[in-house]
Write a structure and sequence with these properties.
Elements (H helix, E strand, L loop, with lengths): L4 H23 L10 H24 L3 H6 L4 H20 L2 E2 L4 E2 L2 H6 L3 H42 L7
Antiparallel strand pairs: 1-2
Length: 164
């Protein structure tokens, strides 16, 4: 579990994008030719919950002493977090929507001409990637805490600490 330069960027952006991306996933579709229907109502209800969930891994990662000292995040954590952001961006392009009167095609449907079923299948994959990224980020954050605590215990016991 190493650190990289990109980890510093993720360490800063994770706080802003955790709040912005759930709302962008729903309302960003308007920027890409998509119309907004019932997904907007659902987004108003669930985007705040999504933002809170996306803040859990960064809050847990704060307890990783090595990462906090370096002002960075671990490489696996950075990759998982970026996967979440990309998946939420892709959600804004792939999620079909509807109103009481008729369905609204997703921006992906408008741009490529694919059907609603295919767009929904892609959306399902994108949501799965976001969920897997969230679980991975949380797991790596917890593993980072455990690793940093073990390093501290070895340092206090006089045992040489291996460098990452």
């Amino acid at each position: 579990m190493h650190f990289s330069r990109s980890g510093r960027v993720v360490a800063v952006l994770q706080w802003f994008l955790a709040v912005i991306m759930p709302f962008f996933a729903v309302f960003g579709r308007v920027l890409f030719t998509g119309e907004l229907g019932w997904l907007g109502v659902i987004g108003l209800l669930f985007s705040p919950i999504g933002a809170i969930l996306l803040l859990v891994p960064p809050l847990v990662a704060l307890f990783d002493r090595e990462a906090r000292r370096l002002g960075s995040v671990r490489v696996a954590y950075a990759w998982a977090t970026v996967a979440i952001w990309v998946a939420l961006f892709a959600f804004s392009l792939t999620a079909p929507d509807s109103s009481d009167a008729h369905p609204y095609p997703s921006p992906l449907q408008v741009l490529t001409g694919i059907g609603s079923g295919t767009s929904m299948a892609v959306t399902t994959v994108v949501v799965t990637v976001a969920a897997a990224g969230w679980l991975l980020a949380l797991g790596v954050a917890i593993a980072g805490i455990v690793r940093s605590r073990r390093s501290d215990a070895r340092a206090h016991a006089g045992t040489p600490v291996p460098t990452p």
